[in-house]
Amino acid sequence: MNGVLIIDKPLGLTSHDVVNRVRRILQQRSVGHLGTLDPLATGVLPLVTGSLTRLAQFYTASPKTYEGTIRFGFATDTYDAQGEAISPQQSVTLRMEQVRELAARFRGVIEQMPPPFSAKKVQGIPAYKLARKRKEVVLKPVRVEIMEFEILAVDGDRATFRARVASGTYMRSVAHDMGQQLGGGAHLASLRRTAAAEFEIADACTLDQLQDAANNGRLEDLFVHPRKLLPNLPSVTVDDATAARIKSGRSVNLPDLSRAPQVKVFSGQKHLIAIATRIAGTLFHPRIVLTGEPARQLSAGVPGS
Length: 305
Prior knowledge:
- This protein is α+β, with helices and mostly antiparallel strands.
- The chain folds into 3 domains: 1-60 and 197-224, Pseudouridine synthase; 64-196, 2-Layer Sandwich (Pseudouridine synthase); 225-291 and 300-305, PUA domain (Archaeosine Trna-guanine Transglycosylase, Chain: A, domain 4), CATH 2.30.130.10.
- The longest helix has 12 residues, at 15-26.
- It contains 6 helices and 16 strands.
- The two termini are 21 Å apart.
- The model is unreliable at 293-305 (pLDDT under 50).
- The protein has helices at 15-26, 96-104, 127-132, 171-182, 207-215, 240-247; strands at 3-9, 31-33, 41-49, 64-72, 108-112, 121-122, 125-126, 142-155, 158-165, 186-196, 199-200, 235-237, 252-253, 262-267, 271-280, 283-289.
- It is 18% helix and 33% strand.
């Protein structure tokens, strides 16, 4: 099976847990994800299967959209609700204007300190492994971008938000830093990813729905149509002779496509066979070749389409 599948990740599972579950359901080892979600987080987790795992390199810098809740009054060691409190709990009653003014400080390009419980490396060791052993974690601030950050409502000591951020941004750190600036501490109480790159929650299925589809021979209905992948790249459909040349790694002449530097190459409507890069004029060379016959490419419609 060669395709892209969007899972609505449940609370409590790691992204790797989800990948393992999907491997068992599909009876296929070649499954990967396009961006980790913390166990606390739910929502959009795009998975790539078969030869399309090679598309992961095109999604490393994809923006993400989140909805969630920040609880003010105390901070935790993980910066979220799964951690231990590291400050005394204080009674807090938030005002909408106050929190919106605070959130505005975080929009744009900012310097952010990653959480100590994160996958950031410290001398080659993931920070969370050191943090779990109560060892000192020394991380450096990183530059991130928060394109949108809106406070939707406040209720007592909690504020709900919607945010669109660049890859590498930790909403846990945003919550923690907001608590420091407001005073009294804060942490991320809940988080749901509603979009990642071109994939949205409407495209997603649950693990139970995936299992049911596998049991009833309807897996194709849950895979994203290949034409919807990487929408910033034009698509070109080639004949069998040109497809054979591309599959063997040779350069080919393709339609001009408004001087696009890269294109998606299809053999037929659904069989994505390569991402090709322009060399000169109309001459393109396959940057990556995606093997697999059309009959095995289980990619049809988006659920509900």
